[in-house]
Design brief:
It is a single chain. The radius of gyration is 34 Å and the shape is elongated. It has helices spanning 11-14, 79-85, 89-92, 98-109, 119-133, 145-152, 163-169, 180-198, 206-212, 218-222, 255-261, 270-278, 290-304, 351-364, 384-387, 401-417, 421-436, 440-467, 506-514, 531-541, 566-576; strands at residues 32-40, 50-59, 62-70, 113-116, 142-144, 235-240, 246-252, 281-286, 319-323, 331-334, 343-348, 472-477, 483-489, 492-499, 546-551, 584-585, 597-598. By secondary structure, it is α+β, with helices and mostly antiparallel strands. The strands form 5 sheets. The chain has a 5-stranded mixed beta sheet with strand order 3-2-1-4-5, sandwiched between helices. A 4-stranded antiparallel beta sheet has the order 14-13-12-15, with helices on both faces. Strands 7-6-8 form a 3-stranded antiparallel beta sheet. GO terms for molecular function: exonuclease activity.
């Protein structure tokens, strides 16, 4: 029989079943502890090697029970272990094997917090034994008295954190002697002494004790009171400075639990530690459901630009790629979208990304790249691009406005609102040509342009499909059996509500619509909200458990729109990030092309 693999964990992995602290943890006085000690043959845990188990169950200072037994390890006992513990092979020979002892021990541990001195060692042997003999490990919460002592006691008080030293310091009634039950009894006295000390550190619950044993900074411990009194509901939280300025804005399905996590050892970000030092209070904004919380977070970050938020701070700093409305149109990077008859693509998060997408367009269609305002009457000297055949030279009237519109401008206009196939085909053909000539670095540059262009096209067409609708009312079940209801107008969250469980959601839905925000649309794919807000709404609407209740029109995308190139975009991005060093796009990636393309 093959033994299951076992890897010993660190103390952090033993703290709880899910790696988190229960916000409703009992006070230490009401918590049942099983204080355990093992004697072993030494070495690493492999499912065997346990020679003795001692455990004491206590609560509120009262001993509730004891568990003690010798264990036959099924192997020879090293002489130094006999010298250290006084346990001999003759004592172990009639003892039961560990697989016989485990059921009773696991039952003794049920519902209690496991306490041990240097807990990873003892827990490691027990977990390995359970894995070897097919018993599920119950994942109890674990407290390590050695770790607690390192945090609660100074070097002036105790020279080390050995069990014998701590037992002497706390005047234990039993001195440890390397026998399991006596060592467990000594650990009980050490635990009680440490619990008395923890009160001066404002540690009163099991959750506090678990976190205290971990590496929490003084600033986190000092500011932990900021999480007091916060609600366990979805919403937004704001850390505020002494002058009431927002320092950081975040969102969570459970505000109280999320804010408490900032004061645990799991929070290691330097900028957040700096923020906690400056914060004086935390403000909670309760929301109907998580989507409203996400949207409110985006709006608050945009409104206040908190210094410790890195993302979504300046949504107005987007740019657009504009095809100008003139006789010989050209591409221009602009900061505002207006209703001027021009064709726009975007929004882009930076000018560099917009220029990269524009370069992809130039690879596909012969749009002029100069900034001159051309006249239909007089000629302008041509640039080098005309001599290289990269521009049809409208400046010298080598092409009529009608031909220029058909060959250069129309493919771009069609790509933004309909089928980008001709543009994509032309870029892929250029990549093929460069690859065939072994000009791979140039082909990679063109590939990056294709990625930037396709991302923008897919994003804009998805946004436009949603934002052109005057209203969408949608709902999804929440965890309590009620309904999360959202009223969306032109891609903006206009109202949010949650209907109670076991009640028909229609009254709540009707009330939400009547009180919803009036939304007047503007131009472009994000006419009434930021693109990021509309995309968060799209992600919520596209969840399989979301139901569309009512819509003001058809929610549709172009039949041969940019979305059909999603697989192509994914493959190109994988190749660009070196996830696939030999990417070739097959017919499954291109719904309109059976050729393979090297990316």
């Amino acid at each position: 029989m093959t033994q299951p693999a076992y890897v010993q964990g660190t103390l952090d992995t033993l703290l709880s079943a899910d790696g988190s602290v229960d916000p409703a943890a009992l006070s230490l006085a009401d918590t049942t502890f099983v204080v355990l000690d093992l004697e072993t043959t030494g070495g690493a845990p492999d499912g065997a090697g346990i020679t003795e188990i001692g455990a004491v169950k206590v609560r509120a200072g009262e001993r509730l029970g004891e568990f003690a037994t010798l264990v036959n390890p099924g192997a020879a006992l090293p002489p130094f272990i006999t010298v250290l513990t006084g346990i001999t092979e003759a004592m172990l020979r009639p003892a039961p094997p560990i697989e016989t002892v485990l059921p009773s021990l696991l039952e003794f541990l049920r519902g209690a917090v496991l306490v041990a001195h240097n807990a990873p060692y003892d827990v490691g042997f027990l977990k390995a034994a359970c894995a070897r003999h097919g018993y599920p490990w119950p994942n109890p919460r674990v407290l390590d008295t050695a770790a607690l002592a390192r945090r609660a006691l100074t070097r002036d008080e105790v020279p080390n954190r050995k069990l014998g030293t701590l037992a002497h310091f706390f005047r234990s009634t039993v001195q440890p002697n390397h026998r399991a039950l006596d060592d467990a009894k000594a650990t009980v006295d050490v635990l009680h002494g440490l619990i008395e000390r923890l009160g001066s550190f404002q540690v009163h619950t099991l959750g506090d004790a678990v976190e205290f044993a971990r590496a929490v900074t003084p600033a986190q411990r000092r500011q932990r009171h900021l999480a007091d009194g916060l609600p366990h509901v979805p919403g937004v939280y704001l850390f505020r400075a002494a002058d009431d300025r927002p320092l950081y804005v975040g969102t969570s399905k459970d505000i109280a639990t999320r804010v408490r996590s900032y004061f645990t050892a799991g929070e290691k970000r330097a900028r957040i530690s700096e923020m906690l030092t400056a914060a004086v209070r935390v403000e909670a904004v309760e929301c109907a459901h998580p989507l409203e919380a996400e949207v409110r977070e985006l709006r608050l970050i945009a409104a206040h630009a908190p210094p410790y938020n890195r993302r979504s701070k300046f949504p107005e700093r987007v740019v657009w790629l504009k095809l100008t409305a003139e006789a010989f149109p050209r591409l221009s990077v602009v900061r505002k979208l207006t209703e001027d008859g021009a064709t726009y693509l975007g929004p882009f998060s930076s000018r560099r990304t917009a220029e990269l997408a524009a370069a992809g367009v130039y690879d596909a269609v012969p749009l002029r790249q100069c900034n001159h305002k051309l006249s239909l009457r007089s000629r302008t000297p041509a640039c080098a691009l005309a001599e290289l055949g990269r521009c049809p030279a409208p400046c010298e009237h080598e092409i009529t406005p009608e031909e220029y519109e058909t060959r250069a401008a129309l493919p771009f206009r069609t790509a933004t609102s309909g089928d980008p196939g001709p543009v994509v085909d032309a870029i892929l053909a250029r990549i093929d040509t460069l690859a065939d000539r072994q000009r791979y670095e140039e082909a990679a540059v063109v590939r990056s342009r294709l990625i930037a262009l396709l991302r923008a096209l897919v994003r804009m067409q998805r946004l436009e499909a949603l934002t052109r609708l005057e209203e969408i009312v949608a709902a999804r079940r929440d965890d309590r059996g009620g309904w999360e209801i959202s009223v969306i107008r032109h891609g903006r969250l206009a109202a949010a509500a949650t209907s109670p469980p076991r009640e028909h959601p229609r009254p709540t839905l009707d009330a939400a619509r009547l009180t919803a925000e009036t939304v007047l649309p503007g131009p472009g794919p994000a006419p009434a909200a930021t693109a990021e807000e509309s995309e968060r709404i799209l992600a919520w609407l596209e969840r399989p458990d979301t139901r569309l209740v009512e819509t003001s029109g058809d929610w549709v995308s172009p039949v041969r729109g940019a979305a059909r190139f999603t697989a192509l975009l994914t493959r190109a991005e994988a190749a660009a990030s070196h996830q696939d060093s030999s990417v070739r796009l097959s017919v499954s990636d291109r719904s309109d092309d059976a050729r393979s393309h090297r990316l």
